[in-house]
Structure formats: structure tokens, C-alpha cells
Design goal:
The chain has 369 residues and is an alpha/beta fold. Helix content is 39%, strand content 8%. It folds into three domains: 103 residues, Helicase, Ruva Protein, domain 3 (Orthogonal Bundle), CATH 1.10.8.60; 163 residues, Rossmann fold (3-Layer(aba) Sandwich), CATH 3.40.50.300; 68 residues, Arc Repressor Mutant, subunit A (Orthogonal Bundle). It is built from 15 helices and seven strands. A hairpin with a 6-residue loop joins strand 4 and strand 5. The longest helix is centred in the middle third of the chain and has 16 residues.
Length: 369
Amino acid sequence: MATAIFSTERDQRHLQQQYTGSRHDDVDIVTMHEGNRVQSDERVRDQTPFNGIIGSSPALKSVLADVDRVAPTDSTVLVLGETGTGKELIARAIHNLSARRGRTFVKLNCAAIPYDLLESELFGHEKGAFTGAIAQKIGRFEMADTGTLFLDEVGDLPLALQPKLLRVLQEQEFERLGSTRTHRINVRLIAATHRDLTDLVARKGFRSDLYYRLNVFPIEVPPLRERPEDIPELISHFVKAFAGRMRRSIRLIPPETMAALTSYSWPGNVRELQNLIERAVIRSNDDVLPNPLPVIEQTRTWPQDTATPNRTSATFADSVRSLIFRTLEDTGWRIGGPDGAAERLGLPRTSLISKMKKLGISRPRATKG
């Protein structure tokens, strides 16, 4: 992911001013009403104070105002949001606007490390602490001493490790595996998850005391469908970036392409948009950006429940259930793999399976003739 770096001149006093006044530098956005031209033959320059965080919608401005408010403190921050919304960028912005910005920013994805290695990754170990521990290892908390530790997907932290994390947060001390020596540290923690921690607490999958300790200052990053006015600016940003990297010239985004991209629901959020714009730049001909959305995706929004056509509105859960069900049907109920439902929805395979269980989605049984 992109790394956000701030100079002292781009600090808090100019933060919101510069952000609010951001422009589509060197790129003209095509709207539905006029076909502006996109110039991409200059080097890509990211001049926003939040490097990688693009947009000027009220929903995003509210998030950045919270970032600006909490950054100077040492309080624990819990960043919430769907997959692909940019939670790590928010964490980096908090770090780089804090008094710790000259110190280390260390990150760890709790869902990416096997359970039997996660404790060692967090707290370190001594030589001989367990089979295969052939040398001493420094853990992420120790690496982040005097800096910031970002724990991504903290909702996937095993229950057995949660008391140890709680102790570090409360006491700022821990022991490496295989050692009795207590290490005292000074670490600011920022955690993030796409999961509903209150639901996990209710189902005994997450400790309530750890949840309350993490939930000091929650920041919820809105999904892209809730800030559609940011989509043209994001498209401009990614077109510039990929065209410059690939040494291609994109001079026109047709109005119909911009309209299709703006009206799409983006279940994979900014990450999905980024990937599709990269695909479009690769496939571009004659300096024109093609529409990267397959026909089936262009008509997909967050639909109402087709089983009840008389309803004027559907709940969010119904909309998500309908979207997932239709995608599974489109892929022949193939969840993982290339062009599987998880890939189409922009979700990790495990996240899609979890949502299916939560929403009660299962493959219909074939009827006997």
C-alpha cells in the first residue's frame, strides 16, 4: 500500500485547507456532460496532504477531520470499514500527523500470520524457545517502541492471544517467548478490522475487555458507494498513475465510461476501482480509456430484494444477500479461484464465506426430476 509521508510544513494547520482545495492536478475529468481530455504525459505527482487518500466528499472530510483531531494524542484508534476502503492509509495519516511521525511505523496483518507464529511475531522469542527458534527474534511491539504499531484485521486475532494484547495495552510491558525478562515499551496502537467486533463479542469470539480497550476512538471509513462524488477524482488519480507507469497516453475518458464507473456499486471499494482502472489502461487503444466493467457488472448495484417486488426499499442486509447470491449464481457457486465469486466481489475468500454464513446463504439443492 502507499506510504503517507508528511513534512512539517504540511502539518495540521494546513491540513484541512489543502485537502478541501485539492484539484485534479494535470488531469481533466470527463463528466457526463462534457468530454474533457486527460493529459498523462507528465510525471505523476501526489500533492494531497494525505498521500493516497483521494476525494473531497463530505463523508471523507468527516473522517479526515477525526484523523486531524485524534492524531496529536497518544490514544488508541480503531479503524473500521469494509475491505478495500483504505484503512491502512488512515492509520498512516494518524501516525504522520502525530508527535511520533519521526519514529517507526510498524504494521502486522493478524489474518496473514499462522496462529502458531503470531505470538512470536507480536512479542518476539529467545533462541531455543521452541522447535525451530534457532536465533533470537524481535517482535513487532519491540520494533515499534516509541513509534506506532498498526494491527490490521485485529478481529482475526485468536482468543488465546487476546489477553496478552490486552496486557500490553494496559501495562505497556511484555515478555518474549522463552524469557522471563519484562520489556517496557512506549507504543501507540492503531487497530483496524472489517469485521463487526460487537457481533464477535456477543458470540464470544472476541473479548469484551479488549474490545473496550481498542474502541477508545473509533473511525469508520465509508465504503466507496457512500461517496460516489469522489469516484471521478479517484479515476483521474489512478489513470495518471498507471498511464505514467506504463508509458501510455490516455487523452480521453468517454462520458459513457465515466457514467458507468460512477454508477457502479463497487463492492470491493477503492481497491477494486484501482484494479479495474489498471486493467483499462492496459487495454486502452488510441489514447481512449475503455470501460473495464463487464456488462453484468455495469447493471449491478446494491439491488432490492427481487423476491419481494412490492417493497419500495430493502434493508442493507437484504441488498448484500441479494448481491452475493446473484454473484454466486453467475459463477456457478464457485467461491474462490480466478473469476470466482470472492474475486468478483473484491473480498477475501474467507470473508465471503463468513458473510454467507452470517446471511444464511447456501447453494440450493438440485431438485429431482
